[in-house]
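Supplementary Methods S3. Input chains for the assembly prediction are listed below.
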Amino acid sequence: MSPITLIIIAIGLGLAGWLAGRAKAWSFQKASPDTRPVARPVYHAWYVAVWVVIPVLAFVAIWSIIAPQLITQSVLASPGAQNLPSFGFERDAWLAEARAVASGNAPGVFNDGAEALVEPYRAAIQRYTWIGIVLTVVIAFGGGVFAFLRVRPDFRARTRVERTVMIVLLLASLVAILTTFGIFASLVFETIRFFGMVSPVDFLFGTFWSPDPMSNPENPDGSRYGAIPLFWGTIFIGAIIAMIVAIPLGLMSAIYLTQYADPRLRAWVKPALEILAGVPTVVYGYFAALTVAPAIRDAAMALGMTNASTESALAAGVVMGVMIIPFVSSMADDSIAAVPSAMRDGSYAMGATKSETIRRVLFPAALPGIVAGIMLAVSRAIGETMIVVMAASTAANLSANPLERMTTVTVQIVKMLTGEGSFDHPATLSAFALGFVLFLVTLALNFIALRVVKRFREAYE
Amino acid sequence: MTVIHENMEDVGAKMKARDVSVYYGNKKAIDEVSIDISPDYVTAFIGPSGCGKSTFLRCFNRMNDTISVARVTGNIELEGENILDDTMDVVQLRARVGMVFQKPNPFPKSIYENIAYGPKIHGLAEKKADLDLIVEKSLTRAGLWDEVKDRLDDSGTALSGGQQQRLCIARAIAVDPEVILMDEPASALDPIATAKIEELIDELSGRYAIVIVTHSMQQAARVSQRTAFFHLGKMVEYGPTSDIFTNPIEERTKDYITGRYG
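Predicted structure tokens for the full assembly:
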């Protein structure tokens, strides 16, 4: 609540600064119409606004971290805090309760001892809210006045505003990068904890996966943590079966749509294909579990396999393949269409047929886009969870028979993290190790694909 | 309507166009043009931008087929066979009538593969050695062999503009065509590269029937023996290049070659 109030105040003051800066710049310009100003008034306006808003935003970011601590400290200093239990967990619970009541998020306290803290909390919150508002206004005014005084006819407001824009854009792009690093760091940390309990050799090369979240966490049975069946299931379902379905169908539909289809047909089929990418994977899961898997079982029965089950890697893989067709076809379509028509004409003029032109000229030139699409599709398939849960079971199984049950890394991550085990049990931590391996494998796949493309692409420019 | 300086029937034409019209949708881009293409001469199509000379050129190897709205009527014969007929196999036709484009468009493949492309798709070489020979012969004829013989594996797109265009000419002659169509082949090149291309056209004439579209009158005067002047979709005047340039009959031709417009 409180940071939002502060941001609204900042934006209001920023607007005022904007108007003031512009008015001042216009008055300069009107006073001496003959001299050409260095920057247009609107840049002076933005310069002032930036000096109002950005320091305030920085302050709000810091304040929203330190204010709760200051509040807690002042509560702890109050006389009511003397009765607080010394045990950390209980103490935190009392404080949290009192805070919730004080800020109106809870109707009353559960622990009577917390009652005495509600009033100090309320007072502290109020006090620091006011301090926050006052500091915000002071900082906004400070920045605004500083910038306003610098607004002169010869002041280069434009270059400074442009630089600010650049920095804001840079920060925006850093968010994604830092998030990736953050995810990676948290994975690494938990993975190291896991490998402290279970040997990496058991994990990476063992062939039996059945962690028991109820076992003694101090002495885990390493032989139950063999992840090979999961890696195999992931590769078999996501990278083999799904790709056997998706790559040919996706590429052929892309080639048909770009080279053969009537433009009116293309206008219908292309969006329809892309809708396929928007269907939630749970819905594909139903389809796989209720339609495809029984059909595959019946077909297997008809061929004389008596032990065919309703859950099979094949069902999950095929449906997953259909799901990722749009990823393959859409990227391939775009990159084939982007090959200059001079290439195509050159090939036709040599007497090449349509399919020769596609195979020998368009396809090699469009290769980077096509491979990028396939990589995207593989990443999607490897990360896919719902379809596998519903159609290929959650039981690990090491087999090359696509009609058997199988499970994947992501399914086990979900199973382990949502299981009954405590958070520091190796069964739960194994989810992080699995995630870490998945992360590394995806990274390696992307890297290899980039190198391959670089080597084999036929650059037309 | 069209002024013809000589009796066309005497030429012993390689290709004969009769009453050829081209429509883009409802717009008529070429209006009933008839011309004979001699096997012994370089024929130049000149005229201001948008006069339809390139469109007309593209009729001779049916490249207008690739434009869905284009429609061609009339007759074009290649040694007595009407190439505009539906039964005409365009793959065969384009092997016999090659084309070089305005902007050099080598494939993003190696120099060797660029030349080998046509012979491969038409099955002209049985063994690698045969293909090697074709590549060398074509590059030699295009005057490019000495410049690229040590780097046949480099990408064709890494060459300079003029070399790229000569590579495209070599690519066209690799399938041993009877006619080569050139659509402003030097307009994207500098004067030195242009001179080389013109020299090459001169050397190739006689071996192949060559038709060149150009908007440079000097170029037409330098390389061609027959010139056709196009204006607003019509062929205005046709005859020996020297006649067209020194003694034009039509007023529009006269205006154009004296630089009054275009």
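Chain A has two domains: 3-155, 222-460. Chain A touches chain B through 22 residues (CB under 8 Å).
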